[in-house]
What we know:
The complex is a heterodimer of chains A (73) and B (148). Chain A is extended and about 45 Å long. Chain A has helices at residues 31-51, 68-71, and strands at residues 9-14, 17-22, 25-30, 59-67. Chain A is built from 2 helices and 4 strands, in the order E-E-E-H-E-H. By secondary structure, chain B is mainly beta. Chain B has a 4-stranded antiparallel beta sheet with strand order 2-1-6-7, with no helix packed on it. The longest helix of chain B has 13 residues, at 5-17. The A-B interface holds A 11-12, 39, 42, 45-46, 49-50, 55, 57-69, 71 and B 1-3, 41, 43, 82-83, 90, 92, 103, 106, 108, 120-126, 128, 133-139, 142-148. Strand 4 of chain A pairs parallel with strand 7 of chain B.
Amino acid sequence: MDLLKKERIAVSIEGELVVIQLGNVTLKVPYETALQLSQWIRFRAKEAKKRAGDVSRHWSVIGNLTDANETRG
Amino acid sequence: MSASNVFENGLLSLIFENANYANVGDATGLRGSSTAGVFYVSLHTASPGEGGSQSTSETAYTNYLRSGGSVARSTAGWSVAAGVADNDGAITYATCGASGATLTDFGIGSDSTGAGNLFLYGALTASLIVNSGITPSFAAGALDVTLD
């Protein structure tokens, strides 16, 4: 499926699974798969960016902030 | 023109680990700071934007101190690999008191208080509603800076 327009995307976790939401499609994958997928996506995105003639340097900054009381268990 | 993987890692390492980036100009290359210092990670209720400072839209939940988000500019504070810098240890802020906030963004800058110098900023993977008793924290590895 091509997603040629910007779709609602979200990534969350469910136990040991990573839940990927692409529009109306939900994928649940093991964390090992998600880590591998993230590397592939980044690699291909860099190729696509080059093909698009986008030579800008792009800084991506993302953080997952949680309540420390929950993670302490 | 594109940046090589070596360049991306070298630049991130210079900025976050204060490591010299060799072979730029001479063998030693671009030097790290004489005093490595720390980065302060600030929490915000909206994006500070490209023209913003460390205090733009910064949260003011009860007990919040930006100084709680200090991370050393060294390999003890950050790890750089495969074009990504991430935090080595948990970054934990003061527990919220009476007045809360909804946190949506964070920044990385130079100062523990005031406008300071905002270097990088980004969105949280999900907003965190902070109210009394909540202790905001980035777990080790939960903060990623990628250069592509």
